[in-house]
Structures are given as C-alpha cells and as structure tokens.
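Re: the request from the purification team.
They wanted to know what the chain is likely to look like in 3D before they choose a buffer screen. I agreed to run a prediction and write the result into the notebook, where they can find it.
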Amino acid sequence: MIPSQKQMTGMLGHPVAENPIDQMFDAVYAHYGLNWQFWKNDVLSSELLRPAVAGLVPLGYSGMCITVPYKVDVLPLLDAVDADVKAIGAANYLTIENGRMIGHNNDGKGVVKAIEKQRSLKGQKVVMLGAGGAGRAMAVELAWAGAAQLTLVTRREEQGREVAERVTAASGVPATWQAWNSPVLVPAGTTLLMNATHLGCAPELEPVPVDWSSIEPGCLAVDVITNPRYTPFLLKAREHGCAVVDGVEMLVQLAMQIFSTWTGITPDEAVFQRAVSTALGE
C-alpha cells in the first residue's frame, strides 16, 4: 500500500520558539492516525512576511496559523477572508485549498469558550491591556458574547481608538480607549481584566504593570500567554483574590476549532488537553 502524502500545517510569527502549539498539534495528529505535521516558522520581520506567505502554496501547506505580529499585515497577501476577519480586521489562521489562501479568525471564539467555562460574559465590564491582532479579535468576540462595555488600554492611541471604534461598529457595545500608564489604573467596577500583550511570556517573564490596589478581588483575570501557563500576571491576580483563566485553555479551545476545520474531524477535548500538558512538561 502506498502511504498517504504527508499534509503540512504550521504557524508564521515572531517569536515562536516558546509556543507549544507544534508539539500539541503533532500529538493530536498522531492520536487520530493522521499523516500530518505542524511546523513553527519564525518570520523575523514584516518585510519577510510577503515571501513567506507566497511560499505556502508551492511548498504544499494545507493550513497555517498566523500569530503576532502578523495577524493584520497578512490580510493583503491572501486570496480571500471570511466574515469574521472582515469584522475584526485580523486573521489568525488560513485554510489553503486549490492554490487559494483563505483567512479566518477564531482568536476571540477561543477566549470566549475558555472564559465561559467559569463565568458568563453577559454584562461584564471588560478592561483589555493591549489591542493587537489577537486583542482586537477578542474584543469584538467578547462584545458579541454579551459584554456590557470594553476599555482598551494601549500605548498607541491611534491603535486603541481604532479597535474601540471597530468593536462598537461590529457589536453596538460601547468601547473606549485609555492611555497605558505605568502602573495601569483599572477603572472602578471592572469585572474582567485581560492581558492581551506579550508581557509575561517565557523566557523573560516580564510583569504586567498593573496597580492591583485598583482591582476588586471579585474581578476575573485572563491572560493570553501560553507559556508559562501561570504567568506573573495570573499569579499576582490569584494573590489578590481573583479567579483566573490561562492562555493554555484559550489555545486548546481555538486549536480544536482549527484542527476540525483543517481535518474534518471533531476532536475529543481531552486529547488536546493531554497533548498541551505534555508539551509544557506538566
């Protein structure tokens, strides 16, 4: 019997070394007996993104994840995008079929599923630190899921206001911009605080400059970082009495959706949870 041709998938971004996504996907592919493989590709600059994307079809890729800082920059390089990408203005994965690259975005869907394992998003007053490619997707999806209001805290005013306007236009939910100061003062009444920056990622493990005295203990703290699972931000939140949602849970939720889209298989969540725990050495 001639073995089936290996299907290649992967991720484009920078940096990607500490992300456990390749080990997780490869373990799940193996579990389901698929001749598939996942490759992490470190694209060092935006100037190199165009040739990297142009090479995906001739190299035979079947799908590709897009991570920071290219979720917005990749859009003009694609053949088409879905309705979510049009509303959000960023893509976090591609399907590649018949030589065409289609952009999709489920960053926000992953975070909504992860959060709603603990708490309904209905009526939540959300403060998001950062509003890059992942942050803008999450902000829109949180609004679609029922959040009452959003405050976007960014260093770049133009970026923060643009994402706030996009959230309100897409959902009708009021969204405002707040300047990033050090430390960040969180508005009174905030019920969900999300770190959508890369502060806290291994190996640097930088703290997020938040004034914890401005945060009520009942606030839910959410982090997008996947390695380590419990970042300095989440550890500090726990010390403050906050419940937490980690980035690994978000990764599992969005990865399951991507896996299903690429392979046509609806995976068992336990398979993904075991795979990512092994990848992180837990």
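For the purification team: The mean pLDDT is 95.
Please add any questions underneath this entry.
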